[in-house]
Amino acid sequence: MARDRVVPMNPDVARSYNWLISFLDTREWESRKSRIETYLNNVLDAKVTRENATDLKPVAIYDDKIAWYLYLAETYLYHPNKYEPIQGARVVPIFKRIGIDLDIIQSITGINTRVRDLLFPNKINADSGLFELLAALLWARNGWKVNFIKEDPTRKTPDFKAILKDEEWYIECKRLAKSLQYSLREREKWLSMWRPLAVPCLFNPWSRNKILGWVHYLKKLEE
Which CA distances in Å does 60 have to 34, 104, 212? Predict the structure, then answer.
């Protein structure tokens, strides 16, 4: 189904999605999207053995986050049967915010270079890159002239400069990022504790009821 023949359910999200995707040629986007869908198919396909059924992987992409976010926006708009709502719940509002004020954000000096950096060399750090865009947008919405500052690998530079009349501020964005590696280790620990119980629960109703009753009993004791 061609995107240009579909009326998007959220025009603001569609505006930001179409703007960001315009920085990628069709072949590049299709290649990155194909890698995402191949991974998701492997994760979500029915497993043929009990061992494989308990070897769970996250329904998320970490090595190309910005492509993953674009994929979530695209499926939200045009392929709701593929949309992952838990992941998309924190991504779609960002696209909507950008889409609402797209004219303002496009007027920021240096925005095109910053978006290209977000889509290519900084594709893993999509959260930080989008946070910088939103921070710059906030200053611009409040009447400041905003200029993104080109990154210099030889020295530390602010993210952008904001000017209003005689005032001039240099802004460095710092976003508190979640510890991905810690989260993954915590998840693996939980899975290692769950695996011995997973097979009986999945394939033996009597064992499942017994285990759940035992957990409920322990919960009652703790209370």
Answer: 14, 31, 29
CA distances from 16 to 10, 20, 49, 84, 92 (A): 11, 6, 43, 19, 10
- Would you call 158 helix, strand, or coil by DSSP? coil
If you compute the radius of gyration of the chain from its CA atoms, what whole number of angstroms results? Answer: 22
Residue 137, CA distances (Å) to 14, 16, 103, 118, 130 in order: 18, 13, 10, 16, 10
Determine what percent of the chain is predicted with pLDDT higher than 70: 73
Report pLDDT digits (tens) over 84-93: 998 999 899 9
* 207: its two tokens: 């064992």
Model pTM above 0.85: no
